[in-house]
Fold this protein.
Amino acid sequence: MPFSIVVCGTLVPDPLQTLEPIAGPGQPSLKNEMMLPAVLDPWAAHALYEAANLAAQHPGSKVWLVSLGPKAKLQQVMMTVAQKAPFELVALDGPASGFTDSFETAEALAAAISAIPGLDREQVLLFGGWESASRGAGSTLQVIGERLGITEQFLGVDRLTVQPDGSLQILERVEGGRHQVSVVSGPPAVLGWATGELGEPRNNPQVGMANMRLVMPALQKAKPSPLPAAGLCYQSVSLPKQVRETRIVRNMPADEIAREIVAWIAEE
Amino acid sequence: MEVDIVCVGFGPATAGFLTAISQAPGLPPLQIVCYERADDIGFGVSGVVTRARGIRASLPGLDLDQIPMATRVTSEKVVYLRPPSRARNAIDLPYIPPFLRKHDGIVMSIGQFLQYAGGQIMGAGVAQIWPGMPVSEAIVEDGRVCGVRLAGMDVRAPLTIVGDGPVGAVGRQLADSEPKEWAVGMKMVVDLPESATLPAGTVLHTFGYPEPGIFGFLYVHPGNVASVGIFVPSWMQAPTQTAYEYLQHFMLHPYLWRHLQGGRLRSWGAKSLNEAGRTATPLLVGDGFARIGEGSGSTNVLTGSGVDEAWTTGVQLAEGVIELLREGKPLTRENLETAYLARRRASWLETEAQAAAHARDGFHHGLLPGLLGMALAGFSNGRVALRGKPKPLSDTPPPPREWPPIPYDGRLLVSHQDALLMGGKVQAPGGFEDHVRFLDPAVCRRCGYQRCIQMCSGQAIAAGDGAVPSFDREKCVHCGACLWNCRHGVLAFQAGAGGLHSSEN
């Protein structure tokens, strides 16, 4: 059974760089944000790899990557992402900041998905990260699903198995390191992926060149999507706290290491 | 796959080439692809003070406000650093020789500049720059370079441009000679303490400490950020410390520490520098290929400048290629010699390279002869110089020497491994084989002084079983120092993915 897999995902500043929030004229931003190298949001990247893997197993399936971000940055990020997996890009030229409103983002993405020529809405699997590295609300994908009328929604997905009768078995993360197992009769469905089970594919120049034939035209006709953010007010912004302490201790028993880590987590 | 031009490596030289191509009106549509080994463009290169003559000629409207960490030079000083225990431990030289001056130049991060230039190039639709894709080798058929080989794909092109730096795999494959003079450049980008008073654009050049033969620098970027680093040259035959340890002692010198104390490590990186310059120019053109940038011997050791020179070689090649394309001439060795080499040889680049050719020879006799030789060469435009030949690298460890302990503070003075993680953000994507291999274990076992371990910038090479060094790809910053520090020539250094992952270097 072929699937129409639509992956929503955009760029985030490379988390390994120095990220520094600053107050902007309308909303906060990151210092030198436009000049920071960017990567595909890691949550969405997992969804893309799962989508490509699923499409490869079901001939006739197709993957679209729908990205809303500054066009110039999208182009640069696509030079890496396009080497990972086959997809067709749908680009929207707008902000990809962590401070954009998830509702407005979802509205723009839903409209772009609705406008994909020839998309069989009944066969759509809407993939994305269950949350984002730059906005932790985790609500964008759900709103897109609602806007598209897709009521079967799964979040924190680690595994999707297409069963012989065409139904989809889905494992969602729940508390305590366990999974909730659901079965849905088939598409359409929304799957917000956690990390999935696939590693990051090695760059493949052939995949990159094949994708690029469609990436460049998609970027050229990227629809401006400014996302006005009317009514939003930010009280304060901060980066996730990072703590790094290094000690070199030889021959420390594993139990003792574990006890220290537990004590450290408890302090937090 | 077939394209019109394939470029190996995206550094300043290739950026210059593609920028010049993008500015040429009326060219037929070209498919140009560029493959860069690092995870993104601008990773793994270094900060700089440059006069930027070539860069500014290419980009006359260059707005430094558009490039983070870039600013004009506001003051410049050469400082002789003496041992910290001396009552007078630093002497500001009253005069900077004209050949060294950068007073009309720019302080910037090459990483940030290349991000800017890459964005402009791709935005203009001139070229596709593919990061994270090391080039294994050039495809050579009947003496002609026909393209490059990637992992799993050949890219064929009438012209291959080799800009993969001094230790690049393709550059070495197509070279007919090897440089004999090298240095490891290692630096940190530091968030200066709030109390720091150094204005943006301040440039300090130093010599004398932590060893007489080590040159150092401190450049101040906008936003109270500084680049601090050293060069450990190959003519220091037996360093007593690793480059990282030398860098820490350098920063702790009271002359610098008064500005750095309380600062925070922001980025860290290292690279090899080809310091042979004009004296070891490899084959620059051949049928189907041309070489640009540092790997082409463009670095000028007299003026202490390489980035602008590399950029300019790229621009000169672009001008030559544009000329040949417009005239419908094939990209043969003869035509490239006329269109590119002749242009390069007639430019300021060559004039200054000739003056610098033997400027550093004196250092093979010691620090003072070295400084004297530089002065003679600089003031006579190369007509007079102290001559000397590189001595072979030492095969025995130096006698132990007492160095003061490093007062680690967890912010700026951190362990070498923390510098890799906190500063270099070093990455090693899966699926690639080791790019450093030891070809003859028997030779390694006999090696009296395993300099490859001592000089490894990332501690990626360590003592292994049976006296054969081991290699840890996850720590490698791809500086290539191991390559020229193996005096037996039994170390293979190939193109690999990953390495430094910071664009602030």
Remarks:
- Residues 30 and 221 of chain A are 27 Å apart (CA to CA).
- Chain A is about 30% helix and 25% strand.
- The domain at 4-224 of chain A is CATH 3.40.50.620 (Rossmann fold).
